[in-house]
Write a structure and sequence with these properties.
By secondary structure, the protein is mostly helical. It is about 85% helix and about 0% strand. It has one domain. Bound molecules: protoporphyrin IX containing FE.
C-alpha cells in the first residue's frame, strides 16, 4: 500500500505543478499582442495540458482508486475526511476541464478574459491543495 500511496502523491505533485503553471501561461498569453508570442504560448499550453496535466490527473485518480480498494465499503462510509476530500477533488477536476476549454479559446484566438481574471483564477488550486492535504494527512473527522 505504501508504494501505491507514494506513486499517488508523486502524480498529485506533477498534476499540481501543471495546475499552477497553465493558468500562469494564460496570464502572460492574455497580455501578449505579437504573433510570435501568441503562437509560442499556444504550443506551450497544449504540451503542458496534454503531456503533463491530464496524464498526471488520470494517474493520481488511478492510484487513488487503487488505495480505495484497500478499504471495505463500511470503512469508506465512515471516512468522512475522504468524502470531503473527494468533493474537493471533484472541484479540481472541474477546474482542470475548464482549463481545457480556456486553452481552446486561446488556440482559436477567441480569449475574452483579461490577465487580471487569470491572476485570480490561478489562485483557486492553492486553497484546494491546502484543504485536501490537511484532510488526507490529519484526517480530522
Ligand atoms: C484523484 C482522486 C483521489 C483519490 C481517489 C484519492 C484517494 C486517496 C486514498 C484512498 C488515500 C489513502 C488514505 C490512507 O489510507 O491514509 C489517499 C492518500 C493521500 N492522498 Fe489522495 N486521493 C485523490 C486525490 C488526491 C489529491 C488531489 C491530493 C492532493 C492535493 C491527494 C493527497 C493525498 C495524500 C497527501 C495522501 C497520503 C495521506 C497519508 O498517508 O496520511 N489525493 N488518497
Amino acid at each position: 500500500m505504501l508504494w501505491v500511496k507514494s506513486f499517488h502523491i508523486i502524480c498529485v505533485v506533477t498534476w499540481f505543478a501543471a495546475l499552477f503553471y497553465l493558468p500562469r501561461l494564460f496570464v502572460y498569453h492574455a497580455m501578449s499582442d505579437d504573433h510570435a508570442s501568441n503562437e509560442r504560448f499556444k504550443i506551450m499550453e497544449r504540451k503542458l495540458y496534454r503531456g503533463i496535466m491530464t496524464p498526471s490527473a488520470v494517474l493520481a485518480l488511478f492510484f487513488g482508486g487503487w488505495l480505495l480498494s484497500y478499504y471495505t465499503l463500511e470503512q469508506l462510509a465512515a471516512m468522512h475526511w475522504l468524502h470531503a476530500k473527494l468533493t474537493l477533488v471533484a472541484l479540481l477536476f472541474a477546474y482542470h476541464g475548464y482549463c481545457g476549454r480556456l486553452l481552446k479559446h486561446f488556440k482559436n484566438d477567441a480569449n475574452q478574459r483579461s490577465h487580471v481574471f487569470y491572476r485570480w483564477f490561478n489562485e483557486l488550486p492553492v486553497f484546494i491543495l491546502i484543504s485536501v492535504v490537511i484532510l488526507a494527512v490529519v484526517k480530522p473527522f
